Amino acid sequence: MPHKILTISIPTWNRANLVKELLDELIAQLIQYGLSEEIEILVSNNGSEDNTHEVVEELRAQHSFITYNRNTTNIGGNPNVMLSMQLASADYLIVLGDDDRIKDGSLKRIVDFLKTHADAGLVVDSSNFKKKINGYVGAKDFLPLQIASCQFGFFFVL
């Protein structure tokens, strides 16, 4: 498998429906924009007792860019987030909650930016773009990316 530029890490617990919706959206972007060789999607299941395991395994069987970790027990929210970050194999990392969403086209813009700015140091999501039952909370148009520089290199705010 070629080396990936970006890992999208998704720690989850007992939220099969939300993680499936997020994965479906991410998979669609990777396929639409030809990013499957550049992005790894990593799901860290924190010992879910619902059908999260089956949902992720079904999608992983169809898409080689999905990596899956299944904790045998719930190790706690923060430890699972940290583990999901440690398991990432790409040069850069974005951590998404299973209820987070990335606007269509953003992954392509992020990868394009990272390819041309090897000194990028930090990606900050200021969109507060969360899924809820009847729509989105805090949804706003957060393209184009806001690019700024800092002492650690460049970073961009979604």
Q: Compute the average pLDDT.
A: 82
Number of domains: 1
Q: What profile does the largest beta sheet have?
A: 4 strands, parallel
Query: Structural class of the helices, strands and pairings?
Result: alpha/beta
Distance between the termini: 29 Å
Q: Beta-strand level of the residues, as a percent range? A: 25-35%
**Shape category:** globular
Helix content: 25-40%
Number of helices: 4
Question: In short, what is this structure?
Answer:
The protein has 158 residues and is α/β, with parallel strands linked by helices. The protein is built from four helices and nine strands.
Structure in words:
This protein has one domain (6-157): Alpha-Beta Complex (Spore Coat Polysaccharide Biosynthesis Protein SpsA, Chain A), CATH 3.90.550. It is 31% helix and 27% strand. The protein is built from four helices and nine strands; from the N terminus they run E-H-E-H-E-H-E-H-E-E-E-E-E. The strands form three sheets. Strands 3-2-1-4 form a four-stranded parallel sheet, sandwiched between helices. A hairpin with a 2-residue loop joins strand 6 (130-132) and strand 7 (135-137). The protein is globular. Residues 131-158 have low confidence and may be disordered.
Task: Compile the SSE list and pairings.
Blueprint lengths: L5 E7 L3 H17 L6 E7 L6 H11 L3 E5 L6 H10 L5 E4 L10 H11 L5 E3 L5 E3 L2 E3 L8 E5 L2 E5 L1
Helix pairs in contact: 1-2
